[in-house]
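Sat 14:20. Reprocessing the chain from the morning session after the first attempt stalled halfway. Input below, unchanged.
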Amino acid sequence: MSEDRGDRHDGLTRRKFALGFAFAAVAGVAAARQPSQTVDYLGKNKLENILPEKIGRWTFASNSGLVVPPEDQLAQALYSQLLTRVYTSATGTPIMLLVAQSASQTGILQIHRPEFCYTAGGYDLSPSSPHRISLPPNGTLPALSISASMRGLTEQIVYWTRVGQHLPQSWTQQRLAVAMDNLRGLVPDAVMVRVSTYGNDKVAALAEIDDFIRTMIGSVAPSARRVFIG
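Finished this time. Tokens:
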């Protein structure tokens, strides 16, 4: 039994070493090759102008009430766009939307990940789980879901990150996406979208969030959809 555990440990260590070596190699080559072409899907557009205030049955109600990083962290995220909105409907709980955009990889996406800003706000988080959202006609959006709880209130969260044309599902994949684009001579922009609502019934809450996301993507002009989903 001890030998089996040792074998598994050795295998895991080798896989971690191989992944670390591969990432270091890609990052090293990317650093040696200076990217020269900037990919910025948002350009001079403003997030508040791209996203309508009326999305299906939901209507924009407020800019406040969302969990955001501490002010000292936000102060470091200059020259990037941040949109926060609360949408309400006649049926269902409010939907909270946060979109963070970075044209220069300043780190604004990382500080807006739920694992960072909700923990900083005193919330207890569940482990994140892969969450795939079907998009018409035959698309699928790879996202993550997580639950945040504090003082008896639970917020169900779905979020995803776009880096250039990639949709990475982890911080490691996000860094690799940047490195791979750098190898191609590109400096990719990046966007993180976070959608949440309150509710202890996770299945029902996620269904409501998915419906909002599908409607939101469909409500954006076709030329601007790549800002959110590549």
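The two ends are 48 Å apart (CA to CA).
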